[in-house]
User: Fold this.
Amino acid sequence: MTDSLNLPDPPARRPHTAGGRALGAEGGASKRGIVAWAMWDWGTQPFNTVITTFVFSVYITSKSFGPTDPTSQALGVSTAIAGFFIAVLAPVLGQSADRHGHTVRDLRWLTWVLALISAALYFIAPDPKFLYFGLALLAVGTVISEIASVNYNSLLNRVATEHNVGRVSGFGWGMGYLGGIIVLLAAYFLLIKDNPILPVPDHDSLGIRLSMIVCGVWTLLFTIPTFLSLRDKRAAGPAGSQNIGVVASYVALGRTIQRLWQTSRQTLYFLMASALFRDGLAGVFAFGAVIASGTFGFSSGDVIIFGAAANVTAGVATMAVGLLDDRLGPKTVILTTLVILVGCGLAIFILHDQGAIVFWILGLVMSACVGPAQAASRSFLARLVPEGRSGEIFGLYATTGRVVSFLSPAMFAAMIGAGHLVLGSGTETQYWGILGIIVVLAAGLAVMIPVKPVSEHSTIEGSD
Assistant:
């Protein structure tokens, strides 16, 4: 596996200069170290793929827990609450990790808690009395997963160099896609489908619940290489700033945002643009299965198979396009993939009545663009972060994404409503929802176009 990465050996370490960027502070990791870092994505992706997307979220909103509309609304509320806590906590907890130098330690504990929560979902039996307990576990797990991702993303600067950060970021994203889909397919064929391979009793949704334990165990096992390879280092934050209160942390965050506006405004513009297009990218996967089923007539099995194909396509494409990220720059990758996504989305809208083959072809092309855009966005920011501020800036990255996370769902619903106004209330207009996703992607594209390439950005200067 390591030889296929074709990554250059890390250069000799360069002495740190005050105010330098994090990518220039260390020499990066060996190929083995890069794989160990990416194994965290491989190990934790089942929470996103199996639990929050294809299996548990569908299960908890099924009729076993009550009427569909109330359970779906409850899921929406719990997800929104989780998003609020992520937006509030991410930059401050990331800042704390920077100050104390405990990024890896915090990531390890968060990962273990995530594994425990994943496995605990086994106890959510198909009964309405378990609805709110299940939603609470799912919401807490979402918060833990996102906060852990902040720490994980901040470690990208430690394993990559300015010469291979695109490939490394893409490799990590690709590993996540592939790991998640392997668990999904294994759970589906071994435990969940009718007449599964394993002799699972056909009652109390036992196959689905056992798959939750599989996710937890998978996370524990496959993140071991990450924690054996990566170690915390001495905090690089400002001297004497390791112990500050919560209020002071938010004051420091405010100063960082102010400093972004004064000395690195292009970075702030990028955070705004990425918040928009990342929400659109999330909408592609969040509503893709819904459109496949409701508009193109995919069965539940078809959706699983398409999901598997889409994730494999996304994973392979993300790894491959990482090479272009390093050669052409992340902005080029982001703009190109967003243009393709908008074009394919419009084609799905126009050709919605031409059969499932349309969605198979265009949906897989869109899947091949989502991962590269996400990975390039991460590598774009990684190239800008000053040493000792990775957790805080990637926390701000998570927060800006969460602040606008309502846009894709809202626009999806609004465009379906617009379709009713245009075509009549009795007409099926679910396919109009894709226009809502296109609007969000196009808005992110428009804001991203004037953002200067990384080479023309200035580092966030000063310290608290």
In short: The chain is about 70% helix and 0% strand. Residues 330 and 376 are 5 Å apart (CA to CA).
